[in-house]
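[stage:ingest] chain + small molecule (flavin-adenine dinucleotide)
[stage:ingest] validated
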Amino acid sequence: MGATGFAYDIARQFGLNVIEPRPALVPFTFTDPLIAPIAELAGVSVDARASCGKTSFDEAMLFTHRGLSGPAILQISSFWKPGGEVLLDTARGQDAFARLKALRAERGKLTLPIALAMIVPKRLAAQIAARTHGDARLADLSDAKLQAVAAEIHAWRVKPNGTEGWRTAEVTAGGVDTDELSSQTMEARKAPGLYFIGECVDVTGWLGGYNFQWAWSSGWAAGQAV
Ligand SMILES: Cc1cc2nc3c(=O)[nH]c(=O)nc-3n(C[C@H](O)[C@H](O)[C@H](O)COP(=O)(O)OP(=O)(O)OC[C@H]3O[C@@H](n4cnc5c(N)ncnc54)[C@H](O)[C@@H]3O)c2cc1C
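[stage:predict] done
[stage:export] tokens:
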């Protein structure tokens, strides 16, 4: 925030709008009652889909001692607003209900934790079983019950209490309002001769080099104009 904070001060001095900066591309943290079960799974990773509203990312997700991390979480954190929910599919690309139903038909004596471990990592499977039907045999679980178990896998709604903040954030969301700048030269419309580029502008890229690309490209454009 050092360089960006300095840039915001200058922008404000010249009457430019600055969108409230916040950490982005950053892990989520949780409080009770969610943090205990999440921390218990620290080190487990899954192929996930993380969604906020209409935006979703298909990437890996990692359980940690402090909360949720991994590319899927970092990406969706840029779209999450404090107080909001995140929808998580922890077995992206699979159909847990269909799989459980097929297992019930073929091997009805299988217990739920063992069947779930064929779909998600074993430790996560044990936790989902414990909060649904424990060690029940598949043969004893109705379609409705299997559907509810599948929802725990594919539609897990979590409400982060916050993020790990500036300490681990890879970028800053918010910053000098792009409406204040020429998109050709990055020059402030209200203050000729004053340019803003890179991180301090309200442009936030996805993971994968887009933030560097923005920093370099906006710098190049401003340099050409100067
Ligand atoms: C851990 C981490 C990993 C990241 N990984 C990626 C990645 O893989 N891909 C990607 O695209 N982006 C990544 N980013 C984001 C990327 O680093 C930034 O978006 C990019 O560096 C922004 O460039 P910038 O020139 O605008 O700002 P900065 O790189 O922050 O440069 C600002 C410079 O200004 C200097 N400065 C500060 N205050 C003053 C002052 N008062 N006077 C003069 N100079 C000052 C600073 O020392 C610094 O050198 C990552 C960021 C972090 C923190």
